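Weekly modeling sync, notes
Attendees: S.R. (lead), two postdocs, one rotation student

Agenda item 3: backlog of single-chain predictions. S.R. asked that every request posted to the team notebook include the full sequence so nobody has to chase files. The rotation student volunteered to paste the first one in as an example of the format we agreed on. Action items at the bottom.

Example entry:
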Amino acid sequence: MNKAIFLDRDGTINVNYGYVHQINNFDFIPRTLDALTLISTKGDYKLFVITNQSGIGRGYFSIKCYKKLENHMLSYFEENNIKISKVYMCPHRPDNHCSCRKPKTKFLMDAKREFNLDLNKSYVIGDKTTDVKMGKDAGCKTTLVMTGKKGEDKSYGIKPDFVAKDLYNAVEIILNRNKK
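Predicted structure, as returned to the notebook:
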C-alpha cells in the first residue's frame, strides 16, 4: 500500500486572498515549492490536493476559470519536477450539504481506492480545522500550518497531531518522523 500527503490549496500552498481564481492573483506561499520538491525527492509519498472552492457554487467564478488556474499550478509543479497524483475539488457552497466538501472524507476515501493508499500512514496538511477534522476522521495524521487561516476558523474543536510554521516545516516534521 502507498502513503500519501493530502494538501489543502488556499492558505497552505498559495496565499489566500479570498476566492482565488485568477492566475494573476495566485501567489505561492514562500518555501512551498521547496517543500514539495523536498518531499518529492526524499519522501515516499503520493501527493494530492483537496480543495473546497465554494466560489464556483456562489457564482463568483466558473469551473472553466478554476481549471485554468489549476492547470497553471500543476504546470508550475511539473516544471519543478513535483508530481501531484490528483487534485480533488468541491465546487459546492457549504449550505449545499454535499458529500465532497471538507471536512467530509469522500475525497480521501476515493483516493484510497484509486491509488491503493494506507490512510493510517498518510498525512493531511492544511490551515483550517476542517482540514484537520477530515484527516482525523479518515485515520490520517494531521498537520495544521500557521499560514492562511492558522486554524482560527475554529469550526471544529479538534487538535492536529502537529503544528508547523508553514508547508516546508510540515514536510520536515514528516520526514523526521520517518527517520525514527
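Discussion: group reviewed the output briefly. The radius of gyration is 15 Å.
Action items: rotation student to repeat for the remaining queue; S.R. to check formatting next week.
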